Amino acid sequence: STSLMFSLFNGLTRPDVLPWYTPTKWYKHLSELVTWQLHPTRDMYARVHPKYRPSALQVTESYPTFIDWCPFHALRDKLILMHAANTRIDEIVLDIASHYCVEVDLSKLVRTVPRPTPGYVRLWDIIQAMGDDEAAKQSDLDPLHRDDAAALLPAPDAASIFQSVSHARQTFRLLRMDEGPSLYKIDPALFNMYPELYSPDVSDIVASGTLLQCRSVQLLARIPPPARLDKATLRVYRHFADWALTVICA
């Protein structure tokens, strides 16, 4: 299936992204999108998440299909009009994804915020703070983090959100980040990087308030890109595709 192929692709070329891939259900939305693109029927279209359904411009223009992976149609249109020929388009789309965020009252997350305060948290920051399963196991076994299993929100301070696996995972659940693009907005810092992408028609997807962050915690600024495809990886991918197709059609 398309979902299996996405899983293999990320497992082979983007292992650092797997902690993002599963909890956000990113694979589900993009699998449905790609399935419709390969088999454009009314039934397949109905399964595509509304955020990923094509705009009128997408239907009429030719452009790099990686743009389709952005869940904001206004940004997709701008990417098509301004960056369709840009050889760095994949980096731009990854920069956009790295700035997905969810708005929240910061007093629900951090005790040092005494009153309701509008803010937002970047999804990629929380994904990194949650760690992978192995990191979580080590954290649970580490006496210094033994209390993490019983940690509650609001956390003592902002640093705890990004240093405690338990606090990070509770933040992920509280903000319902697993519900996908319906809740996501864009960190306004993105438009400092790409001012040409901003206009009044995208204001409704721009987060407001204060970004929750901890500068003392080192996090990757951008979701890692896929590794360069080599012949060995391509061979594995093709063999798996042949096998999957044989099983499905059997």
TrEMBL record:
Protein name in the entry: Uncharacterized protein
Lineage start: Eukaryota, Fungi, Dikarya, Ascomycota, Pezizomycotina
